[in-house]
Write a structure and sequence with these properties.
Elements lengths: L9 H10 L2 E5 L5 H4 L11 E6 L13 E4 L2 H14 L7 H13 L13 H12 L4 E4 L3 H9 L8 E2 L10 H11 L5 E6 H6 L3 H7 L5 E6 L4 H10 L16 H7 L4 E5 L5 H10 L4 E6 L43
Parallel strand pairs: 1-2, 2-3, 4-5, 4-6, 6-7, 7-9, 8-9
């Protein structure tokens, strides 16, 4: 389901999940983040099959019609062999055409004429220069989601993130380990200004061992994901997230830790030039990008929402108008 740039629009995936009549989940969880409202998840599916290595994940949130617990490769090979023996040869042309239309109509997009620097544009530029071959590590927050959405990963094991563990500060140490393991590869830590603070002492580790890791800090002066939730679901009652982190000079901090190339990008017109210099530099490099504080992660499914209620923002086409939802004022982020 990849687009012309190798990425599959996440909205198209979610719509396809709603539209399919048979959903097969392989090594993935139906947790609350995925299933949302279980009764409305995969609402068009007559059957759901779940293959996983962990028995605890079966029927955990969403009940399924058939499951298998065990080694995925062996299971899939046996299913394929069985299908071939039964001469199973369905015509998926209509479904493929439907998916192609979803990807075209609901493609990822953002305001490409905005005055403030858009994080998506930064990642697109880095992706273009590295051609989907770089190892990407992230912290946790909006930058993590943007990296997942706008990077092409041409092969497995190029995406290092803590996933549902939500470990802020994961990105830089993970990048260090990846660079030691693959000294010939381009390794990039995409981080946020809040996440990088959690393990900022490892900046010196990078220069001590002269690791050519590229560190990008997408700076929106606070906890951007928390701010986005407060804006969307708590009527913009910002608390400890609205431009709350102002004083850190990341460039000076990087220079103090021995980075010969450490610069700040704060003008759109400098984006391509500085990103190209940053990627081309042979040693450790640090780039702080002052991004639009209102840049959001879209599409997103809010608490208590189904896929039909996805919030897509202003630049991604939605199939259904999201319905208003009241979130309890005491609900945790």
């Amino acid at each position: 389901m990849a687009t012309s740039n190798g990425k599959t629009p996440i909205l198209a995936v979610r719509l396809a999940t709603d539209d399919c009549d048979f959903l097969i989940a392989v090594g993935s969880r139906f947790d609350d983040r995925v299933a949302g409202v279980p009764g409305k998840f995969a609402r068009g599916a007559k059957y759901i099959a779940h293959l996983d290595v962990d028995l605890a994940e079966i029927n955990k949130v969403k009940r399924v019609h058939w499951h298998h617990v065990g080694d995925m490769r062996r299971a899939l090979e046996q299913l394929r062999t069985f299908g071939q023996a039964q001469k199973f040869a369905p015509d998926y042309s209509e479904w493929h055409a439907h998916i192609a239309e979803l990807k075209q109509v609901h493609a990822m997009n953002f305001d490409r004429k905005a005055t403030a620097i858009q994080p998506y544009a930064v990642i697109e530029e880095i992706n273009k220069l590295t051609q989907g071959e770089a190892i990407i590590a992230t912290g946790v927050g909006q930058h993590q989601m943007w990296a997942a959405q706008y990077f092409d990963f041409k092969q497995p094991r190029l995406w290092l993130t803590s996933g549902s563990m939500g470990t802020m500060g994961f990105g830089l140490p993970a990048a260090i380990g990846a660079q030691f393991a693959h000294p010939g590869k381009t390794v990039i830590d995409i981080d946020g200004d809040a996440s990088i603070r959690m393990n900022i002492g490892e900046m010196e580790t990078v220069t001590t061992y002269n690791l050519p890791i590229k560190v990008v800090v997408l700076n929106n002066f606070g906890d951007g994901m928390v701010r986005q939730w407060q804006k969307l679901f708590h009527k913009s009652r910002f608390s400890a997230s609205d431009k709350s982190l102002h004083k850190k000079d990341f460039v000076k901090a990087a220079q103090a830790d021995g980075y010969e190339w450490a610069k700040r990008l704060d003008r759109n017109e400098d984006l391509q030039k500085l990103v190209a210099e940053f990627i081309a530099f042979k040693g450790p490099a640090f780039l702080e990008v002052v991004i639009d504080v209102d840049a959001g992660v879209y599409p997103m499914v809010g608490p208590g929402m189904s896929y039909a209620q996805m919030i897509t923002g202003d630049w991604i086409a939605s199939r259904e108008e999201p319905k208003a939802i009241d979130v309890d004022t005491n609900e945790m982020f």
